């Protein structure tokens, strides 16, 4: 009798196996059919605002600067010497305007709130340094290493970073108006809430970066690579984006009014609720893109758009 009951239970378990296999198969198929962009960004964009330093209360700036300056092991940093910069130094409160630091190494240094304007810091290594609320306007960091740096709410107005390596850095809430970075590497950076108006990034690498609510008005991103990025709620009004790649990037409520999109690649991108009024298309690739506005779909031929989008009822090819 015991053996019989055991056999019946075993039979029931065996009957469940095909159903379980079918369920797993359905889940697997659903996962396979999910667009890559949705897998990359399963959560809504982070729209929690961060105020530009230009509009911060002096007390809030002072609080950021006054925080303890400690090394990773918990020991205090040594006070930096202007003429002999070294790794791990504390340069808070220093006046570094017009400094000539070419070919130096100041890695893991603390530059919070430092005045660092009109300086020449090319061909140097500042990786893992803290530049929060620093004023580094008009400084030349070309060919320098600025990876894993914190530039949150810094003044980076007309900064020069040609050929610089800035991957894995945060510029969240920074003023980057007119910044120039030809051939720079800004992969996996946080550019959210930044002011990038009139900036120029030619042949730059942005892949994997987050730029939610960023202001790219009249910016130039020619031949840039910005795959797998999140540009939700950003503004590209009048921007020159010719030849750039935005494969599998997310553009929720992004403004492309009057933008130049010739030879751009939006393969697999999410274009939900984007505005393209006045945008120029020429061999612009939208294959596999999702949430394409209906008016843009009407201009598509084999996943490619060529034309000038004027209005809902007036399109010129």
Give keywords.
317 residues, mainly alpha, four-stranded antiparallel sheet, 4 strands, elongated
Polypeptide structure, described:
With 317 residues, the protein is mostly helical. It has a domain at 2-33. Helices cover 16% and strands 6% of the residues. It has helices at 2-33, 36-40, 58-66, 294-297, and strands spanning 280-285, 300-301, 304-311, 314-316. Strands 1, 2, 3 and 4 form a four-stranded antiparallel β-sheet that branches. A hairpin with a 2-residue loop joins strand 3 (304-311) and strand 4 (314-316). The model is unreliable at 1-14, 26-30 and 313-317 (pLDDT under 50).
Query: What is the residue-mean pLDDT, rounded to a whole number?
Result: 89
Termini gap: 82 Å
Radius of gyration: 25 Å
Per the principal axes of the C-alpha atoms, what is the gross shape?
elongated
Topology of this protein?
Layout: H1 2-33, H2 36-40, H3 58-66, E1 280-285, H4 294-297, E2 300-301, E3 304-311, E4 314-316
Antiparallel strand pairs: 1-3, 2-3, 3-4
Give a summary of the structure in a few sentences.
It is built from four helices and four strands; from the N terminus they run αααβαβββ. By secondary structure, it is mainly alpha-helical. Strands 1, 2, 3 and 4 form a four-stranded antiparallel beta sheet that branches.
């Amino acid at each position: 009798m015991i053996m019989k009951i055991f056999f019946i239970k075993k039979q029931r378990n065996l009957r469940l196996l095909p159903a379980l296999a079918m369920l797993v198969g359905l889940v697997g198929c659903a996962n396979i059919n999910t667009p890559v962009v949705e897998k990359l960004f399963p959560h809504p964009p982070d729209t929690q605002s961060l105020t530009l330093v230009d509009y911060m209360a002096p007390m809030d700036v002072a609080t950021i600067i006054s925080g303890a300056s400690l090394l990773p092991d918990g020991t205090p940093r040594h006070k930096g010497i202007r003429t002999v910069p070294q790794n791990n130094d504390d340069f808070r409160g220093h006046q570094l305007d017009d400094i000539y630091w070419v070919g130096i190494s100041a890695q893991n240094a603390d530059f919070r709130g430092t005045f660092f304007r009109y300086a020449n810091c090319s061909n140097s290594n500042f990786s893992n340094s803290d530049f929060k609320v620093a004023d580094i306007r008009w400084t030349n960091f070309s060919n320098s290493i600025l990876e894993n740096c914190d530039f949150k709410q810094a003044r980076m107005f007309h900064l020069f970073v040609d050929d610089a390596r800035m991957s894995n850095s945060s510029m969240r809430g920074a003023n980057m108006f007119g910044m120039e970075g030809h051939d720079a590497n800004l992969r996996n950076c946080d550019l959210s809430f930044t002011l990038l108006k009139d900036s120029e990034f030619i042949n730059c690498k942005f892949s994997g970066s987050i730029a939610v609510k960023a202001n790219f008005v009249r910016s130039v991103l020619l031949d840039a690579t910005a795959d797998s990025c999140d540009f939700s709620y950003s503004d590209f009004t009048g921007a020159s984006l010719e030849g750039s790649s935005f494969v599998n990037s997310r553009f929720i409520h992004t403004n492309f009014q009057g933008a130049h999109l010739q030879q751009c690649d939006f393969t697999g991108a999410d274009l939900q609720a984007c505005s393209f009024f006045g945008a120029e298309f020429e061999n612009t690739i939208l294959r596999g893109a999702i949430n394409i506005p209906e008016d843009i779909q009407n201009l598509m031929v084999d996943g490619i758009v060529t034309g000038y989008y004027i209005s809902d009822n007036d399109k010129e090819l």
